[in-house]
């Protein structure tokens, strides 16, 4: 059975010049222009230095547009054969996209989705045992909360009947018109991680009894994961504003992207039990009680949503910033200034997913009510990255 909430939770800086950013798909943001930002490393589950540091500068090649005509795409999960499952935030549907032809096939609607503002059908993830259980996990906004469900996907059934009824494994995450978080992913440890938002209620981020403004870690059944930092609680970290990106490096260290408000968006190295400062700190802080980001962006240049790890580099999709950021890593530090690609070319960018062989899938988000849709939006791009 899923849990409605967790029990009470206890409680060498590197300067880089980067262009800044903020919220836009994850909340209001009013900053203008770009300026220098300070970045600082925060220890993760396994601090240290990588054996091989990627080059300071990289490259992005757009190989093709896989498919077009998607409405409010949000979560993406890659099936074992390479095809993609894509969630529509506003329609509450899941569509299968053929990774070779780009052909789309709608699997059906997820019952219980109540889309409004930034809420709706958000993150998707496949069970670690998908080959045997065929379970697809989804994070969505209901009429009363944000929750996580799982559904059986049976490809052998007739079209329109392949997606089973959702089984709720976790509920009670605060919902709002803004800041619903929504990214879910299974970690290398087989546990399910979820990034949540504070739903516009800032105080929830520091409230250790609340599920808002957190990274949660749970079993596939929705129970607090063994080894969590706080007894009998799914809370893994707290003090977040709106987490929408989760990715692990090749040393099983977790990184997360987070929307700021008026000043700084963040990329964080995640330390179990860490306090990431919101609302008392936004970006780099001198208070040792808070974990500092490894990179930060001024408003307008980021609004980070999804992230992916490829060959020593975090790739971060930017909504308001309308670009793809490359952040090379040296352990849990950024080893060079973040580098921007595709600036303004495809509009708002929501989700980036590793596709193997140095490639990523990248979704646009121009039909989300804050973009300027062009013919063909929204789309999925296949990129070669280095």
From TrEMBL:
Q: Which residues form a coiled coil?
A: none
Q: Which residues form the Glucose/Sorbosone dehydrogenase domain?
A: 70-370
Where in the sequence is the signal peptide annotated? 1-27
- One Pfam family, please name it: GSDH
UniProt keyword Cell division, yes or no: no
The region called Disordered is annotated at: 28-54, 364-386
Q: Which keywords annotate this record?
A: Signal
Composition-biased stretches, type Basic and acidic residues, lie in: 369-386
Low complexity biased stretches: 31-52
Q: Which InterPro entries match?
A: 6-blade_b-propeller_TolB-like, Glc/Sorbosone_DH, Quinoprot_gluc/sorb_DH_b-prop
Q: What is this protein called?
A: Glucose sorbosone dehydrogenase
């Amino acid at each position: 059975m899923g849990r409605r909430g967790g029990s009470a939770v206890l409680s060498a800086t590197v300067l880089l010049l980067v262009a800044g950013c903020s919220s836009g798909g994850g909340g209001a943001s009013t900053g203008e222009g770009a300026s220098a930002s300070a970045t600082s490393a925060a220890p993760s589950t396994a601090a240290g230095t990588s054996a091989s540091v990627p080059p300071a500068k990289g490259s992005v090649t757009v190989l093709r547009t896989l498919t077009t005509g998607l409405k409010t795409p949000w979560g993406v999960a890659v099936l074992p054969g390479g095809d993609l499952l894509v969630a529509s935030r506003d329609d509450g549907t899941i569509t299968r996209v053929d990774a070779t032809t780009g052909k789309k096939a709608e699997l059906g609607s997820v019952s219980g989705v109540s889309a409004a503002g930034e809420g709706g059908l958000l993150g998707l993830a496949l069970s670690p045992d998908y080959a045997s259980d065929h379970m697809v996990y989804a994070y969505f906004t209901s009429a009363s909360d944000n929750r996580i469900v799982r559904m059986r996907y049976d490809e052998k059934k007739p079209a329109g009947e392949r997606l089973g009824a959702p089984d709720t494994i976790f509920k009670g995450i605060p919902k709002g018109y803004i800041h619903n978080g929504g990214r879910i992913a299974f970690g290398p440890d087989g546990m399910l991680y979820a990034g949540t938002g504070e739903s516009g209620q800032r105080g929830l981020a520091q409230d250790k009894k609340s599920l808002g403004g957190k990274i949660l870690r749970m079993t596939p059944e929705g129970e607090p994961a063994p080894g969590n930092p706080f007894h009998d609680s799914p809370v893994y970290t707290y003090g977040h504003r709106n987490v929408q990106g989760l990715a692990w490096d090749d040393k099983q260290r977790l990184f997360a992207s987070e929307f700021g408000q008026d000043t700084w968006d963040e990329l964080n190295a995640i330390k179990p039990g860490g306090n990431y400062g919101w609302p008392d700190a936004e970006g780099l802080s001198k208070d040792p009680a808070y974990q500092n980001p490894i990179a930060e962006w001024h408003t307008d240049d980021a609004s980070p949503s999804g992230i992916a790890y490829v060959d020593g580099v975090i790739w971060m999709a930017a909504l308001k910033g309308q670009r793809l950021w490359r952040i090379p890593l040296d352990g849990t530090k950024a080893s060079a200034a973040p580098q921007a690609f595709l600036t303004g070319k495809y509009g708002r960018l929501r989700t980036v997913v590793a596709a193997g062989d140095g490639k990523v899938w990248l979704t646009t988000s121009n039909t989300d009510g804050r973009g300027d849709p062009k013919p063909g939006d929204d789309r999925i791009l296949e990129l070669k990255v280095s």
